[in-house]
Amino acid sequence: MCHLPARPALLRSPGFTLIELMLVLGLVGVLVAIALPMYQNHRERIRQTQAIQDILVLQALIRDYRLDSGRYPDSLAEVGNAGRDDPWGRPYVYQELESAPGKGKARKDRKLNPLNSDFDLYSLGKDGASKTQLTNKDSLDDIVRANDGAYVGLAADYTR
Fold first, then answer.
1. DSSP code at position 140
2. Which residues contact 78 (CB under 8 A, 6 or more apart)?
3. Is 11 among the domain residues?
4. CA 35, CA 111: separation in Å to the nearest integer?
5. Pairing of strands 151-154, 143-146
6. Which residues span the domain enclosing 97?
7. What is the CATH number of the domain that holds 154?
8. How far is CA 1 from CA 4, 118, in A?
9. Of 17, 48, 94, 160, which one has the fewest beta carbons inside 10 Å?
C-alpha cells in the first residue's frame, strides 16, 4: 500500500477577498450618497446666512451714508463696498428707489407691490438669476431685503 504524504492545510493569506472589498466599497458608496447631499445643503445654508449678514451690514452703511449726506448713495462704491461679492461670487445688487421715477425697477411681492420704498439690496442667490417679482422661480433663491429692512432673508420664505 502506498501512502501519500498528508497535504498541508491551505494557509489563508493575509488580506481581504474580492467580495469583502466589494462589500466595503458598496457600504462606503451608500454612506457618501447619504452624506453628500446633507453636506451640500449645510454649505448652502451657510452661504445664505453669510449673504443675510452681508446685506445687514451693507444696509447699515447705506443708512449711515444717508444720515451723513441727506441722500442714498448711487452705488455700493459710495459706501466703500465696490466689487463686494456675495458668497456665490457675484456682486450684490443695489438699487436706490427714492429718486428713481416710478416703481419699475423695484423688487415686487406676489401682489406686485414694491418690497421697499427706500432702496433694494439683494443677492442673486445660488442660481445667479433673478426677476423683479419675487414669486418668479428665478427669484426664489435670492437673499432679499424687504419691508424697508424689516425682513432680510430668503425670497422663498418671504413669499410664503
1. T
2. 65
3. no
4. 40
5. antiparallel
6. 48-158
7. 3.30.700
8. 10, 110
9. 160
Residue 93 and residue 123 in contact, taking contact as beta carbons nearer than 8 Å: yes
Residue 137 domain-assigned?
A: yes
Q: What is the 3-state secondary structure (H, E, C) of 15-60?
A: CCCHHHHHHHHHHHHHHHHHHHHHHHHHHHHHHHHHHHHHHHHHHH
Three cell numbers written together for 74: 448711487
Number of separate domains in the chain: 1
CA 8 to chain centre: 65
1 assigned to some structural domain: no
Q: What are phi and psi of 122, to 5 degrees?
A: -160, 165
Is 95 domain-assigned? yes
For the question of whether the overall pTM of this predicted structure is more than 0.70, the answer is: yes
Tens-digit pLDDT profile for the chain (160 aa)?
666 666 555 666 677 788 989 999 999 999 999 999 999 999 999 999 999 999 999 999 999 999 999 999 999 999 998 888 999 999 999 999 987 766 667 899 989 899 999 999 999 999 999 999 999 999 999 999 999 999 999 999 987 7
Give residue for cell 472589498: 21
